[in-house]
Design brief:
Number of helices: 2
Shape: globular
Distance between the termini: 31 Å
InterPro entries: ApeI-like, Dehydrase_ECs4332_prd, HotDog_dom_sf
Number of strands: 6
Organism: Shewanella electrodiphila
Low-confidence stretches: 122-129
Largest sheet: 6 strands, antiparallel
Order of helices and strands: EEHEEEEH
Radius of gyration: 15 Å
Pfam family, one: ApeI-like
Strand order of the largest sheet: 1-2-4-5-6-3
Protein name: Thioester dehydrase
């Protein structure tokens, strides 16, 4: 895993479906450097890494990725953007589903399948009992 520095988190909200973060993608982030001369764009690998880091922290998983599913990058994420990152998880399948959006505008989405040993800390504790 790359372990990119996380963006500025403006707010976090937990719902029955998952967790959403309002994030600010500052133009000063190193990830924009050299990722297109004409127009700086946040690399997809950085977006994916942020989703893995925040999702695994929030749901108690180890960041051990087995595979990526239905990964889509629909819109370019530009410098000084404020976007919502929403992540839900399927504990039975050890999967995180994420999407970056701003209202109806979708930037990226996908599913992250974690390795078998990456189970949530809750599941690990239950197994030890």
């Amino acid at each position: 895993m790359i372990k990119s520095a996380l963006p500025q988190i403006i707010s976090q909200q937990t719902t029955d479906d998952g967790i959403s973060w309002q994030i600010f993608v500052a133009a000063e982030l190193d990830y924009f450097k050299g990722h297109f001369e004409e127009q700086a764009v946040l690399p997809g690998v950085t977006q994916l890494d942020w989703a893995i880091q925040l999702g695994c922290q929030a749901f108690g998983y180890q960041p051990d990725v087995a595979s990526l599913e239905v990964l889509k990058f629909q819109q370019l994420m530009l410098p000084d953007s404020q976007v919502e990152l929403f992540i839900s998880h399927n504990a039975a399948k050890s999967k995180l589903t994420f999407s970056y959006r701003d209202g109806e505008k979708r930037y990226a989405s996908g599913r992250i399948a974690l390795t078998e040993n990456a189970g949530s800390s809750t599941s690990s504790k239950e197994r030890q009992s």
